[in-house]
Amino acid sequence: MNKTYSIDALHQKVELAINALPLTKKPQELYEPIRYSLAMGGKRIRPVMLLASCNLFNDNVEDALNAAIGLEVFHNFTLLHDDIMDNAPLRRSKPTVHTKWNNNIAILAGDTMFVKASELVMQCDDSKLREVLETYHKTAIEVCEGQQLDMNFETINNVSIPQYIQMITLKTAVLVAASFKIGAILGGALPEDAENMYHFGKNLGIAFQLQDDILDVYGSPDKFGKQIGGDIISNKKTYLLLKALQIADRYKKEELANWIFAPKFDAIEKVQAVTEIYNYLNIRELAKKEFEKYYVQAFSYFDKVLVSEERKFEILSISRSLVGREE
Amino acid sequence: MNKTYSIDALHQKVELAINALPLTKKPQELYEPIRYSLAMGGKRIRPVMLLASCNLFNDNVEDALNAAIGLEVFHNFTLLHDDIMDNAPLRRSKPTVHTKWNNNIAILAGDTMFVKASELVMQCDDSKLREVLETYHKTAIEVCEGQQLDMNFETINNVSIPQYIQMITLKTAVLVAASFKIGAILGGALPEDAENMYHFGKNLGIAFQLQDDILDVYGSPDKFGKQIGGDIISNKKTYLLLKALQIADRYKKEELANWIFAPKFDAIEKVQAVTEIYNYLNIRELAKKEFEKYYVQAFSYFDKVLVSEERKFEILSISRSLVGREE
Questions:
Q1: Where are the alpha helices (H) located in chain B, listed in sequence order?
Q2: How far is CA A8 from CA B67, B165, B202, in A?
Q3: Higher pLDDT, A223 or B35
Q4: What is the DSSP string of B138-149?
Q5: Are strands A90-91 and A94-95 parallel, antiparallel or unpaired?
Q6: A106, closest residue in chain B (CA to CA)
Q7: Would you say A246 and A282 are in contact if contact means Cβ atoms under 8 Å apart?
Q8: What pTM does this model have?
Q9: Is residue B115 part of a domain?
Q10: Which residues partner with A90 through β-bridges?
Q11: Which residues share a beta bridge with A73?
């Protein structure tokens, strides 16, 4: 009989393993912010996806647990450094590390987390070590490149849609892709299945980010978990804004630009006005169409993976619930 | 016949390999500061030591070249982040990355260098991969801990000599130790020889830092390469200052404290006055004695390494010239 873990069971394994990490070493000034950062929670999507992907090919997921936690520590390291760069005061409604302590502590705690992540990722079978590390390092570089592109976009006025897709691919999607691929490798998948899982994750990650862009404007406040219109208020170059700027006529473009460059504004009024421009331009439907493209592509890769439908059930349902949230 | 490379020949190999690193990728905002950081120069001590250590046990050093460059990239990453934390405007007389660009660029370029370093370090034989990476990660964590201790010391008034030795061990010495050890592993050394090389490097690194503390006060300006008395001006807790605070009587301690806490002072006058207190307390001789202890210990470990004297000649002479600089 096949042993397929439920997503909840995998999630529990991940939480237990994170809580069991030996992070009480000295100097405590270094390890306390690391414990704080990892205890902030979050959905633990990446390690759960890694284990679920491993479980597609293997009944035993224990041997993949360290690598899974490693990717979560890596993800939290990137959040920690990104929060410094973005000057973000809060994450998940709690003070960010650089706010609670200071920038220096946040830089160094992040660096240390990155080493810890690498140590965890390499706790896998010798025969898979090099391939796992190559995927991990390639992805880590890409995530840095994505963050740089995101920072560049803040001062570039004519970001194109393909440039935007490239940025979110690097900054967000490749880490989901790597989680799936590393899980598959550790589960003993055939190379083509591991590759298909990578592309499943990459397209799913892009779809997820596009959905996040849509929900920022059209989500329901209690389900979205963030402030509705936050991207509009901060002039974030999301798919919606870039598409609007691309297709708007001279007058609508000027109207949008007036809001973007307004030195002072009422937040509610701005969100309302920009949303009305989006509605006029049918941006929500266009964004959904783009989302659909990646969503369908994602599952077309998953379909190719040579594993029984029964075995695929858990990963299918979590993926669908992640990128099919109710608005 | 044995093939022993001269230190100069190894240095040249290192420079060529660093120049050949593929760092012209996009986004250029990320890769330009990385090229700048690596082109700043420096003595390339760590990669040269790694290759020399490999060459003790093996005629072929080519297979260790990537790991050697990896440690140099890692070292430069730590300098880059340390410079942000220390608010240092210059390094090797050139503007630091965060000064020439900005903090965000410096954080992200550093992160990327760290990944590149790890990618290079793992370019070694499969049979040695895990051991090399374990040494590398353990060392990387320790370097972060050392930097944290160094930052802690800025606000602690009663740093003890053992605490200081622990800090310089972590911040400086273990990376020299790891260079020797990884070189030995890649050269095919026996485990006990690799361990002896580690302790040789660790003690050498501590001796090197103690000598640096002495030269800051007693070096000749043209040979030292830094401003004489720089540590005194900035109240840096060096071995000399900590020893002086430890052995001074009430009156001399007060005299020292007055200079340390003086809100305004003439730099030349301060350096002269503190140096005179050091002279009165015989600090130079005491520091030299401490230096000697680690220097002798270093070479006692090197003596145990089971390799011919002829083969040891190059590494012996570079080590002696590094920690036996004329004042």
A1: 7-19, 28-39, 45-57, 65-85, 97-100, 103-121, 126-153, 161-168, 174-187, 191-218, 221-224, 230-233, 239-247, 250-261, 267-280, 283-304, 309-322
A2: 41, 48, 47
A3: B35
A4: HHHHHHHHHHHH
A5: antiparallel
A6: B85
A7: no
A8: 0.94
A9: yes
A10: A95
A11: none
Contacts of A103 in chain B (CB under 8 A): 84, 103
The H or E element spanning position B94 is strand B94-95
Complex ipTM, two decimals? 0.93
Sequence letter at residue A212: D
What are phi and psi for residue A91, nearest 5 degrees? -140, 130
What is the pLDDT confidence band of residue A24, given thresholds at 50, 70 and 90? confident
Distances in Å between the Cα of B27 and the Cα atoms of A139, B52, B307 are: 15, 36, 47
Domain with A204, as residue range(s), is: 7-322
Determine, for residues A29 and B140 on separate chains, whether the beta-carbon distance falls below 8 Å. no
Query: Which one of A118, A134, A135, A167 makes the best mutation probe of the B interface by having the most chain B beta carbons within 10 Å?
Result: A118
Using a CB-CB distance cutoff of 8 angstroms, which residues of chain B are in contact with residue A129? 129-130
How far, in whole angstroms, is CA B285 from its chain's centroid? 23
Smallest CA-to-CA distance from B292 within B165, B203, B163 is with: B203
Cross-strand bridge partners of residue A95: A90
Residue B327 lies in a domain: no
Q: Which residue from B25, B81, B145 is facing A107, i.e. has the nearest CB?
A: B81
**Residue B168: closest CA among B207, B224, B139, B197:** B207
> Which positions in chain A touch B29 (Cβ < 8 Å)?
148, 151-152
**Is A326 an interface residue toward B (CB < 8 Å)?**
no
> B75: Cβ–Cβ under 8 A, 6 or more apart, which residues?
B46, B175
Q: Which residues on B lie below 8 Å from A111 (Cβ)? A: 81, 110-111, 114, 144
Residue of chain A whose alpha carbon sits nearest to that of B102: A85
Q: How far is CA B130 from CA A109, A118, A198, B60, in A?
A: 25, 12, 25, 21
User: Does any domain span residue A69?
Assistant: yes
Domain with residue A313: its CATH number is 1.10.600.10
Tens digits of residue pLDDT in B246-282: 999 999 999 999 999 999 999 999 999 999 999 999 9
Please list, in sequence order, all residues whose beta carbon lies within 8 angstroms of the beta carbon of residue B205, skipping any fewer than 6 positions away: B168, B169, B172, B173, B174, B175, B176, B177
pLDDT higher than threshold 90 for residue A229:
no
Mean pLDDT of B41-58: 95
Q: Give every CB contact of residue A183 below 8 A, 6+ residues apart in sequence.
A: A49, A50, A51, A52, A53, A54, A55, A56, A64, A67, A68, A197
Q: Which of A57, A61, A60, A58 is nearest to A307 (CA)?
A: A57
Q: How many domains does chain B have?
A: 1
Q: Is residue B1 part of a domain?
A: no
Q: Which residues of B touch A149 (CB under 8 A)?
A: 27
Establish if A85 touches chain B: CB-CB under 8 angstroms: yes
Measured at the CA of A115, the angle between CA A110 and CA A117, to 5 degrees, comes to 90
